[in-house]
Amino acid sequence: MTVKAKKYLGQHFLKDEQIANNIADCLTQNGYSTVLEIGPGMGVLTKYLLQKNYTTHVIEIDKESVAYLEEHYPSLASNIISKDFLKIDLASQFNNEQVAIIGNFPYNISSQILFKAIENRAVVPEFAGMFQKEVALRIAEKEGSKVYGIISVLTQAFYDVEYLFTVPPTVFNPPPKVDSGVIRLIRKENFMLPVNEKLFFKVVKTSFNHRRKTLRNSLKPFNLSDDLTKDSIFTKRPEQLSVQEFINLTSKIEKDVV
User: Fold this and answer.
1) Residue 114 has pLDDT above 80, yes or no
2) What residue ranges do the domains of the chain occupy?
3) Which CATH number fits domain 13-187: 3.40.50.20, 1.20.1560.10, 3.20.20.70, 3.40.50.150?
4) Given a cut of 90, is residue 5 above it in pLDDT?
5) Which of 9, 48, 54, 111 has CB atoms 3.0–4.6 Å from 106's, for a disulfide?
6) At residue 6, does pLDDT exceed 50?
7) Is 1.10.3720.10 the CATH classification of the domain at 197-257?
8) Among 76, 172, 79, CA closest to 130
9) How many helices (H) and strands (E) are present in the chain, helices listed first?
10) Alpha carbons 158 and 107: distance in angstroms, whole number
11) Over 60: is that where the pLDDT of 9 sits?
């Protein structure tokens, strides 16, 4: 199947059936019975999701794509959400049910989609899909790497991340200029932080905004006590800290600023 040439919101549509099938197979189907596909386009991935033993919903704001899906997948019609994923209340939309998220995500909003899922992690036990390869690798990267950063820490604080496979440009219409990467996120058993979440996010973001500096310098805006900044952790740069170390750091800061 060759999908009609159309680029929407930075999205490149799959034309390779095997890749679509492989992406659909990424979901473990463990702990949920509802799946939401974001940006289905003309349904090349959707058709394989509909063959699975769960209820598939799709969310699509492009009217042409919605009309195409209604015509070619009539069984899906009642489960098409014609809204912007970034603007919906996910929990209300699905009555607080557990819902896995999947998709071939538009490159230019893929990070926003991920952060929306993280914000709604109480109802999102699993998340799988395709990103620009560079972004997918960054999400999955561990500490000690130059590409390890904000999105790595904030995702891995709540989900176990696995980079699954690389997808070449040739399987898309129109073909992008870069490779894509498929990842899977499985929510951790304990997905609530033992520290103030807003402070944790602020510590991570502030640290990486000056990633070449040591934490003692990058975290100066917090006006930390001299006693605290003598801790050896403040001699490190942010990419040297594991997710757990960022949680520990936030705990130290939380106690210091009270």
Assistant:
1) yes
2) 13-187, 197-257
3) 3.40.50.150
4) no
5) 9
6) no
7) no
8) 172
9) 11, 9
10) 22
11) no
C-alpha–C-alpha distance, residues 6 and 15, integer Å: 12
pLDDT at 4: 38
User: What percent of the chain shows pLDDT beyond 90?
Assistant: 89
Residue 131: count of CB within 10 angstroms of its CB: 26
Structure-token pair, residue 144? 């000690």
Tokens (6 digits) for 173: 């219409």
What is the average per-residue pLDDT within 58-75?
A: 95
Q: How far apart are CA 214 and CA 144, in angstroms?
A: 14
Q: How far apart are CA 14 and CA 17, in angstroms?
A: 8
Percent of the chain at pLDDT exceeding 70: 95
